[in-house]
Amino acid sequence: MDYLVNVKIKWQQLIIGSALLIMGFGLLSLFEWTWWALFFTSILAWVVVFGPASKEIFTFPRKFWVIPCAALFYLIFGGVISALTKSIGFDWTSNPATGNLMLLIFKLPFMLMGEELLGIGVLEVAHNKGFSLTISNLISALVFGLMHVFVYWDGSIISTVIHVLLLQGAARLIFNYVYIITGRSIWGSWCTHVLVDLVALSL
Q: Where is the CAAX prenyl protease 2/Lysostaphin resistance protein A-like domain positioned along the sequence (predicted)?
């Protein structure tokens, strides 16, 4: 059941919640020692915006088999897109953490939960405000992708935007799909995100 769509959200709550998410993501992106920032600011943002209803997203996921299937699908999709774009001349910047998995292994679960709370938060707020689930998904993917522009900046605004929308934006669509399919459980999208990053960052 979609409990969050019926929560009354005031614009003041939305502004405060958005500011918390932007601050958390900014700190996460700018400083290595603030790897925890988005995790905590996202939790605060959810409490501010959705209040007690926030706990509804922490239910145990249904259709658990969707998680590894979605992770595998994205890894294949991402590999194909990267190969195709490289073949036509794009020189995309890789994740700065690539190859440093062991240094991040204990931080990664918290960092990715912060990203999930952000992405799912945008999805649920958009849906709550009257957008269809499809449009809400696209808004979430657009916001999530564009927030990665500075992380993956390669010197060209066009190349970087194409990069983050095709890879990070597409990833958000898949993670959101898992969240919905598993019964609106953030554990479903989080597990998928963790699996994807464990593989991607170990290469």
A: 101-199
Q: Over the stretch 156-177, which tens digit does the pLDDT of each residue have?
A: 899 999 999 999 999 999 999 9
CB 198 within 8 A of CB 101: yes
Token pair, residue 182, equals 């598993």
24: helix, coil or strand?
helix
How far, CA to CA in Å, does 150 sit from each of 15, 28, 95, 96, 154?
A: 23, 12, 11, 11, 9
The predicted model scores a pTM of 0.93
Structural domain boundaries, residue 122: 58-202
Per residue in 137-161, pLDDT (tens digit) is 999 999 999 999 988 888 889 999 9
Is residue 129 in some structural domain?
yes
Say if 50 falls within a structural domain: no
d(CA 37, CA 21): 9
The count of structural domains within the chain is: 1
